[in-house]
C-alpha cells in the first residue's frame, strides 16, 4: 500500500526528520533542473537515513535518493513525489585503519583530508564532485583512483528494508557503473567503511596537485555540466571527415584572419552546421564533446532533440553515464 501524504507527514514529524514540501527541485540540483518535489526529505545522519529508507521500502512507497546531483539530470517537466537528500548524512568517524562515512560525505573534502594526513588511494579523487554514496553507486573514478577500491565495507538497505553489508566485489563493478546502478542489486547505500593506509605526505600532495591541474585544464563551466554524458566514444567515418574540415578551417582562419575573428571560433559553428545540428555549437563543451552544457532554458530541448542523436550518429555513443529522471519510479 502506497502511503498517503498525511501518513508521510506524520512519520517525518514523529521521527524528527527535516523535510520541505512542494519545493522547486531546480533550486536543489547541480545544473538547476527539475520540476516540483512534493516532499524533499533531509535525514540528519546515517541512522535517520536508515529509518527513512526502511519506512518507505517496507510500505512499498516509491522514492528517489539524491546526493550532490552532479550526475543526475531531472527534467523540468518531471515532478517527483518523494526525494531523499543525503547531503546532511555527512558524518565521519575515524579509526586507526579506516574511516566510517555517511553516504552524504563529500568526496573531494574527504579526499583532500586523506591526502593531507598521508593516506594512500585518495590523491586522484580531489576535485571529483559528488558524495561517497553516489561515487559507490556510479563507481566514480579519476586518474585510476576510485572510492569503491577504497571501500572495505558498504552499508546498505536492501529492497525489503533490511540492513545489508556489501564488499566492493559484491558490486560487480564495470566502468562507471555497478550492480546497484544497473538495479541488479536493488539496495540503497547509506554509508561505507573506507581504508586508511599510510604513505608519504609529500608524495601524495605532489600527485594530488598534478591531478588537480590536469582536471582543471579539461573543465569548463563546471556548475552547468554533469561531466561525461556517455561511457565511451567511438569516432565514425563521417566524424573523421567533419573533424578534418574543422581542422583545415581553423588553420585557414588562423593564417588569414585577425585575432578578433579567431576568437569567435567560427570553425565550431561550421562543424555543427555541417553535421546537421547547428545549435550544439552553443551547448557542447569546447574541448570535450562528451560534455553538454545546460546554459539556458533552451538547453533541455537541445539535449534531447540534437545532442543525443548527434552523439549516437557521429560518436557511436550508446550508453549514458549520467542518470536521467523523467518519471516518479524508484
What features would you describe in this structure?
The protein has 330 residues and is α/β, with parallel strands linked by helices. The chain folds into three domains: 5-85, Uridine Diphospho-n-acetylenolpyruvylglucosamine Reductase, domain 2, CATH 3.30.43.10; 92-219, Uridine Diphospho-n-acetylenolpyruvylglucosamine Reductase, domain 3 (2-Layer Sandwich); 223-325, no CATH class. The chain is 34% helix and 18% strand. It has ten helices and 13 strands. The protein has helices spanning 5-14, 46-58, 107-116, 132-138, 201-218, 237-256, 259-262, 266-275, 280-283, 299-314, and strands spanning 19-24, 36-41, 64-66, 72-74, 80-85, 92-94, 98-102, 141-142, 145-146, 151-158, 163-166, 187-195, 323-325. It has a five-stranded antiparallel β-sheet with strand order 6-7-12-10-11. Strands 1-2-5-3 form a four-stranded mixed β-sheet, with no helix packed on it. A two-stranded parallel ribbon has the order 4-13. Helix 6 packs antiparallel against helix 8. It is globular and about 70 Å long. The model has no long low-confidence stretch (mean pLDDT 93).
Amino acid at each position: 500500500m502506497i502511503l498517503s501524504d498525511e501518513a508521510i507527514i506524520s512519520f517525518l514529524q514523529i521521527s524528527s526528520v527535516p523535510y520541505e514540501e512542494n519545493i522547486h527541485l531546480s533550486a536543489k540540483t547541480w545544473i538547476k533542473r527539475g520540476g516540483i518535489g512534493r516532499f524533499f526529505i533531509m535525514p540528519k545522519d546515517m541512522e535517520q537515513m536508515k529509518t527513512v529508507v526502511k519506512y518507505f521500502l517496507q510500505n512499498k512507497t516509491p522514492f528517489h535518493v539524491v546526493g550532490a546531483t552532479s550526475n543526475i539530470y531531472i527534467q523540468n517537466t518531471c515532478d517527483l513525489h518523494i526525494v531523499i537528500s543525503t547531503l546532511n548524512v555527512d558524518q565521519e568517524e575515524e579509526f586507526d585503519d579506516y574511516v566510517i562515512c555517511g553516504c552524504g560525505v563529500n568526496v573531494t573534502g574527504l579526499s583532500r583530508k586523506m591526502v593531507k594526513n598521508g593516506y594512500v588511494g585518495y590523491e586522484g579523487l580531489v576535485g571529483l564532485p559528488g558524495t561517497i554514496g553516489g561515487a559507490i553507486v556510479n563507481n566514480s573514478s579519476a586518474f585510476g583512483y576510485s572510492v569503491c577500491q577504497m571501500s572495505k565495507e558498504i552499508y546498505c538497505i536492501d529492497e525489503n528494508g533490511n540492513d545489508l553489508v556489501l564488499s566492493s566485489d559484491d558490486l560487480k563493478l564495470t566502468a562507471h557503473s555497478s550492480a546497484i546502478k544497473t538495479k541488479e542489486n536493488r539496495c540503497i547505500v547509506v554509508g561505507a567503511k573506507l581504508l586508511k593506509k599510510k604513505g608519504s605526505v609529500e608524495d601524495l600532495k605532489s600527485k594530488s596537485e598534478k591531478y588537480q591541474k590536469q582536471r582543471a585544464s579539461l573543465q569548463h563551466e563546471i556548475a552547468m555540466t554533469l561531466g561525461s554524458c556517455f561511457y565511451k566514444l567511438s569516432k565514425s567515418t563521417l566524424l573523421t571527415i567533419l573533424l578534418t574540415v574543422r581542422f583545415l578551417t581553423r588553420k585557414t582562419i588562423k593564417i588569414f584572419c585577425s585575432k578578433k575573428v579567431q576568437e569567435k571560433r567560427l570553425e565550431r559553428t561550421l562543424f555543427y552546421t555541417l553535421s546537421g545540428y547547428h545549435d550544439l555549437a552553443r551547448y557542447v563543451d569546447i574541448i570535450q564533446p562528451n560534455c553538454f552544457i545546460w546554459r539556458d532554458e533552451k538547453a533541455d530541448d537541445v539535449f534531447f532533440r540534437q545532442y543525443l542523436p548527434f552523439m549516437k550518429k557521429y560518436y557511436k555513443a550508446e550508453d549514458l553515464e549520467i542518470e536521467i529522471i523523467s518519471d516518479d519510479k524508484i
